[in-house]
Amino acid sequence: MFGNSKSNRDGQLVVDALIGNQVVIRGDVEFSGGLYVEGRIHGKVIAAEGASGATLTVAEHGVIEGEIRAQVVVISGRLDGDVHATEKVELTPSARVNGNVHYQVVEMNAGAQLNGRLIHASAPMAALPAPEADDADAGKGDTAARRKLAEAMA
Fold it and tell me: What is the pTM of this model?
């Protein structure tokens, strides 16, 4: 039923494993492919190293208490922990997230609740050079500083 459905590019839900609404897991979960959570997980949920297309879906009544790391994360239920998505995070209208969301692309629908920060996962900014005390630049206002900033940004 779940093993061969791999059409995520078409917007279809890919499910390789299902955690039913009567299931409670205490401990970390590692997965690849599509994981659909209707139950409750007390622990980290992490896509296996090297797993491409790992998609975690938390159903409307699903609950995860722990950190999430996957390529694509869709939350309709409750999450108490941080999300780290290398591709996309989608928060549906019923999503309740208490934690920071690290994302490349985020889709947040009206009604979703986020108690935390949205943090775009991009390349870290280059540090600007420390200002130099140069007598030659004295009296030129901030022109020298602007020039140094432009050089640092190039």
Answer: 0.72
